[in-house]
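Internal tracking record. Fields below are filled automatically when a chain is submitted to the structure queue. Please do not edit lines marked as system-generated. If the sequence contains nonstandard residues, flag them in the REMARKS field before resubmitting.
Queue: standard
Priority: normal
Entity type: single polypeptide chain
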Amino acid sequence: MSQRGRLIVLFIVVLLVLTAGGCRRGADSLDPAPGPVTPEVGETEPLRVPDAERGEWGHYALARMPEMPPCFRVAGWLDGECLVGLSRDRVTVYNPFTRYTATVGETAWNVWPAPDGHRVAYNNEKGIYVVDVDTGTNTLVVRNAPGETSGPADFIWAPDGRRFLFSYAYEWDSGFFIHEFARDLTLELGTGMESYFLKQAVAWPDPAMILFTVRAAVTKDGTMEYGEGYRADFAVYNTADDSFKRITDLEDGRFITYEGPAPAGRFAYLIRDREGRAAETGLIDLNGVMLNRRTVDYSISGLVASKTGGTTFYLQDVKRDGPGGITRLLIEHDGALLPVVEISHDAAFVQYRRSDDGRKLAFTFSSPMSRDGTDNGCFGYLLLDRSR
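SYSTEM-GENERATED OUTPUT FOLLOWS
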């Protein structure tokens, strides 16, 4: 090959490196020091770090997302840097480290990033689309069935990204379907379970196992119920043999929820009572084996776990007299739960998304307090773990 030919090839290679995965290019520009974010002059932050707990920050750093897309609601991470979510009603890719932003697809109601970090599913009145965020290729994969009054919901990617699950909600239950890309085929799952209803798919942690929550329509003494159910259990659908079985057997008045992945194929759970007060948390596997079981303060409203381990964040909603409720993000320290962040001023639409490595927590919300203290505002922050 001539020298001119080699130069052309080298130029093409460099161009491909620079343009591939546009969200990933550029050097990091967001590198906050450990500690809380400091409001700029003339700004008001709808978020603060309790003064009494500043000494517990240690290796954590909190940073505002710079030049965040308008009204951005985070849906997940594409990789270690890039977020994807909704900016108003459009699928938007955003890198808070380099400020890169791109919009793909059509009008969207919900967004679900694929495990491969290159594709995103979203839905609207037409059905479910899958768009490649690198090339912009946009495909209507599942078209809404004629007569469907609700859009597809409960969307979950399979771990290998070759299939996905979705549902249609009916009066007392839902129909669940799996779409396979290789065969361009959609199959309905057999999720019938006597005396259980209001089923919801919550996770697909194993290629053959899909995790559901199911609600009992009958108490253990046989009394019937047609409201929200007497208890909630976990159930697993096995795609290898099409079986659908419960893996827990809670007492009446106990309701279990999925709270995120954990190491070794387990996941975090939270058990609440009939009034919605937290009672127990721990880890559970797909056989229903529980460990690290412990009671938890009744005011805890949720958890943010990580499949790589490390810190588990606890969420706590605090009501106050008058306006200005608080949502607290807490960590466990020496056996006690300590608040590291307080989101104030009646925040709404709060979304928390943990990166796969567990080191970054992105959260977005809207608040009636804007940065200049006047109009409604949309806010986004990153909580970074500097110890890992």
